[in-house]
Amino acid sequence: MSAHFDLSKEEMKSYGYKIVDIIAEHWATLDQKKPVSSASRKEMDSIFLQEAPSSGMPAEEVLDFVMENVIPNSTVILHPKAYSFVPGPSNFISTMADSLATGFNIFSGGWMVSPAAAELEIVTMNWLLKMYNFPVEKGGGIFTSGGSMANLTALVTARRIKCGDDFSKAVIYLSDQAHSSNIKAIRVLGFKKEQIRILPTDIEFKISINKLKSAIAKDRLEGLQPFCYIASAGTTNTGTVDPLDEIADICEEEDLWFHIDGAYGGAAILAEKGAKALRGIERADSLTVDPHKWFFQPYEIGCLLVKNASWLSNTFSEKPEYLRDIEGNESEINFYDYGIQLTRRFRALKFYMSIKTYGLDTFKKAITYNIELADNVEKLLRKSRNWEIISPATLAVINFRYNPIGLHLSEKEIDELNQKISQKIMASREALLVTTILNKQVVLRMCLINPKTTLEDVEETLELCNTFGEEILKEE
Fold first, then answer.
1. What is d(CA 271, CA 366) in angstroms, rounded to the nearest whole number?
2. pLDDT, tens digit, for every residue of 451-475?
3. For position 327, what pLDDT does the model report?
4. 197 forms bridges with which residues in the sheet?
5. Which residues form the signal peptide (predicted)?
6. Which of 28, 107, 227, 382 could form a disulfide bond with 162, CB atoms 3.0-4.6 angstroms apart?
7. What pLDDT, on the 0 to 100 scale, is given for residue 329?
């Protein structure tokens, strides 16, 4: 008797080929599409909200329904004019690699079940350790769903090593520009609000070293236990990198765990200008990087690197009786012992296949191009009478606002003007460009990490912003 879910070989091939054709066509025609999609909950409910059907329908009909209703109602993150948040440029080889990993349903938790999957995670992890000058023999790491889980894994490890079982007096430090995932991780770990020090940044949005030293000294005098500092290597808002070497000196002197959140900016190590900005990153105890950002991988793949792999295994290893038969020797790593997940998808495959296919030099050229593109956008903006740069191009992120010279608009008027420009851009669906807040000012933010994005794309978007800005001013 055939299994309930079986399709014939010909049916599977026909269905699979159709999906590959759809994906390939999508990649080939990105610049012909509009990047932005928007819909209300009511509109989505009217299309999708129904009870689970008792009887099925032909697979082709379901696929057609998805292509008509799901894909068009999803923002095209791959689009050259998707500038907001941190875009996911991805690459086609990794997309297909994910299909392989899912198609064969490879379990990437333990060595005995999938030795090749574990080995590729070891190999690719070693590539990353070398990239950041972490010790390959002693160091280690793990692929996670993203930066949020990588940061959580790092902080669990740091707390165990520095605090043991009692963390009632422990204090953790980070800047006001640190990613929100760190705050989430701290809350998940059960720290009270009084144990968290969110320190102000300077005019360049970097942590104030003096304020950090003062905060640590004050906490020690009050009988508390400073145990960890979370530095940013490429903030989401501005791309800013904290002064890593200076922070490392403080952490060594004060016996603090030094965690660097390089989820966004870590990949910039491959570019000459990026490597200079990230000087000192090799001194971290733990480092988060997100391959599904600037390493051009599809979602989900984050990564945590540590100086000593035993820190992870000693923190997360459990030995239940149902796993007793699959423990190998120490060199045969079971990655479920390195993090929170037991069941893990085969994330290493897409990273491995894309590096092998394109070569590391291609990644270096792409990242260098992105940094230079942002620099050129800054030059373009500085030549205009309409634009004011609030945070200069830093690791391919730039923040600016529409503020025409000679109009003498109030801060409130400028904020409202830029908010409306963003709203009109989004409503036009021509570009994904939203605002953020810097120094209590509403600004437009561009994150230019897509190698497909050209200076012409940006110029067209800025021209549209200018047009909308003029329209808003005339109306008001």
1. 9
2. 999 999 999 999 999 999 999 999 9
3. 55
4. 173
5. none
6. 227
7. 62
**What is the DSSP code string of 153-217?**
HHHHHHHHHHHTT--TTEEEEEETTS-HHHHHHHHHTT--GGGEEEEPB-TTS-B-HHHHHHHHH
Answer whether residue 42 shows pLDDT above 50.
Answer: yes
User: b/e map of 451-470 (b: 16 or more CB within 10 Å)?
Assistant: bebeeebbeebbebbbebbe
Q: Mean pLDDT score of the chain, rounded to an integer?
A: 96
Mean pLDDT of the region 394-414:
97
Phi and psi of 143, rounded to 5°? -80, 140
Q: Would you put residue 474 in left (φ > 0), alpha (ψ -120 to 50) or beta?
A: alpha
Span 2-22, mean pLDDT?
92
- Taking residues 247-259, what's their average pLDDT? 98
Nearest to 88 by CA among 382, 350, 385: 350
Look up residue 314 and give its amino acid.
N
How confident is the model at residue 1, as a pLDDT?
42
CB-based contact 118:111 (threshold 8 Å): yes
Pair 418, 435: CB distance under 8 Å: yes
Asked if residues 301 and 97 have their Cβ atoms less than 8 Å apart, the reply is: no
Whether residue 8 is predicted with pLDDT greater than 70 in this model: the reply is yes
Q: Pull the structure tokens for residue 396.
A: 């391919």
3-state secondary structure of 370: helix
- Cα separation values, 135 from 286, 290, 369, 406, Å: 12, 20, 29, 56
What average pLDDT does the segment 155-178 reach? 97
Backbone dihedral angles phi then psi of residue 232, each to the nearest 5 degrees:
-105, 130
Q: Percent of the chain, pLDDT > 90? A: 95
User: Between the CA of residue 42 and those of 51, 67, 72, what are the distances in Å?
Assistant: 16, 20, 16
Query: For residues 388 and 129, is the Cβ–Cβ distance under 8 A?
Result: no
Residue 324, pLDDT > 80, answer no
Residue 331, H or E segment: none
Element (H, E) at 437: strand 435-438
Angle among Cα 109, 144, 120 to the nearest 5 degrees reads 55
Residue 83 backbone phi and psi in degrees, to 5: -100, -15
Neighbours of 8 (CB within 10 A): 9
Whether 97 contacts 312, CB under 8 Å: no
Strands 302-306, 286-289: pairing kind: antiparallel
Task: State the pTM of this model.
Answer: 0.96
